[in-house]
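Feature request, filed as a ticket because there's no other form

It would be nice if the structure record came with a short human-readable summary line next to the tokens. Right now we just get the raw output. Example of a typical job, pasted below so the devs can see what we mean:
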Amino acid sequence: MTESARPALPVQERSRETRRRILDAAVTCLADEGYSAATTSRIQQMAGVSRGSLLHQFPSREDLLVAAVQDLARRREGGIAEPEPGAPARDIDSSVGLMWESFQGPLFRAAMQLWVASPHSAELTAALKPRERELGRRIREVIAEVFGPAHAAHPDFDSLVAVINTSMRGVAMTYLFDPRPADDEPLLPVWRSIAHRILDASA
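Raw output as currently delivered:
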């Protein structure tokens, strides 16, 4: 069957494909161009869809960005390198390195744009808060699995993870205006040293 003779996709499948293209474009626009540039017109252009198709899926910019919040949360959770069942725990250095990796890439940059914008939009804030809380809970669970049960059982483990996560998030935000190789981050050995001082004491 030739390309032109292929049957058209069912309506529901076309609708899902259009929605996927729009959300992908929204995330890319947020990550690469910032919140102010993420207008419906710009996202429509990047997605390669008609104005009518975009408005059918998302009647307003707020509707689109709220959907982007939900999509980002799902994709960020899916990007967590959860260990395979039965896999051995990573060592402390590689576990801390994995935490740092989670703050790199377009999904984090897009989420950061939404965090900064949310205080100016009640609808965006209402959509963002529960998603980020659930995502944070899920990330903490995976981090505990990565470090392994012996380290996760340390009485100061949760506090350690919270402190390192908060520090990493703050440092990662500076990469938005000062791009540089993340592997060369001078605080990475400091975070590892802190983790060793606390967790090795229980070994």
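Something like this underneath would help us a lot:
The radius of gyration is 20 Å.
The mean pLDDT is 86.
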